[in-house]
Amino acid sequence: xxxxxxxxxxxxxxxxxxxxxxxxxxxxxxxxxxxxxxxxxxxxxxxxxxxxxxxxxxxxxxxxxxxxxxxxxxxxxxxxxxxxxxxxxxxxxxxxxxxxxxxxxxxxxxxxxxxxxxxxxxxxxxxxxxxxxxxxxxxxxxxxxxxxxxxxxxxxxxxxxxxxxxxxxxxxxxxxxxxxxxxxxxxxxxxxxxxxxxxxxxxxxxxxxxxxxxxxxxxxxxxxxxxxxxxxxxxxxxxxxxxxxxxxxxxxxxxxxxxxxxxxxxxxxxxxxxxxxxxxxxxxxxxxxxxxxxxxxxxxxxxxxxxxxxxxxxxxxxxxxxxxxxxxxxxxxxxxxxxxxxxxxxxxxxxxxxxxxxxxxxxxxxxxxxxxxxxxxxxxxxxxxxxxxxxxxxxxxxxxxxxxxxxxxxxxxxxxxxxx
Length: 420
What we know:
The chain is α+β, with helices and mostly antiparallel strands. It is built from 14 helices and 15 strands. Strands 1, 6, 7, 8, 9, 10 and 11 form a seven-stranded antiparallel beta sheet that branches. The chain has a four-stranded antiparallel beta sheet with strand order 2-3-4-5. A two-stranded antiparallel sheet has the order 12-13. The longest helix is centred in the first third of the chain and has 26 residues, at 5-30. The radius of gyration is 25 Å and the shape is globular.
């Protein structure tokens, strides 16, 4: 026998023992009592942002304290990889593992994110208390629309009805978009004879406090068909973007949504996590992933957040010039024209003020944001302009006021400036 063979054999045995011990420890940690406080919702289009470029409101009061997590893909295979309950695979060939798997290690962010608006952006209406809220209610849609009446069918679905000579005279409210902190707006998808998908964005939304109201943006609209009496038609890229920005994965297919992972969960921003989880289970110090990579910078973050919160490229030149009040809904657009951003030498970014994991609607949020302002505009910092009116208070109210968007909804203007 070669005198080196016993040494090689001993080394292989040691590696095998250490590997088994490592997986045993992880298995024990995975089996610990672990409740998911996330919302009950269901999964739309699988889109992956490469980590090097763009890889990345208060909770709905109707949400139960500890609903079951229906996100697919929490299972393990033989330790060499991960399975995904829905077979969802990103463009890179990586697999979506589900938020519970991320929560095994990132428990603090996992728990905090469950109370963020991102965690409750997309629901099947049947999975919510909205049918109970709407059932028996009526709402006047205005001239050319009529009176909507709402009821539940035998399966518990929420149905909107309209009197009129032409069909359709009823329509099921299928999906609810929005956390409920401001509003939840309804979508109904239908397949065309050609196999494409169209949708109706319903004219009536549910606003905070379980109040029925006209959907923002529908005030001046008129129906061009009997179906449009229920709301505005959406199709093509507009429909896909609407669903895409409220979900982690989804595919719109012939009047329904396949591969649905609802809400803006971990892998919406960080990308499919299978390789990261595999690496983490083999090593206590896995390689940096997504936003932790050296290639992640301010521009990467801006592209990621702006993908849904909008960037100037998706706004008309006329709106960019005139900056109407409606633009305050698109925070990156305002931030990009702020001197605080332009003169920050790459230091100011979205996460300077907003954690993507922690709700920004808490009672102490305003004071925390003011501290962010003062960190730069401190009287000891001669390189920054100090407010001559109120250097320690009222920063947000004066320079980023909340602008009314109708129906009681307000957004803070992120064009930070001295206002008239």
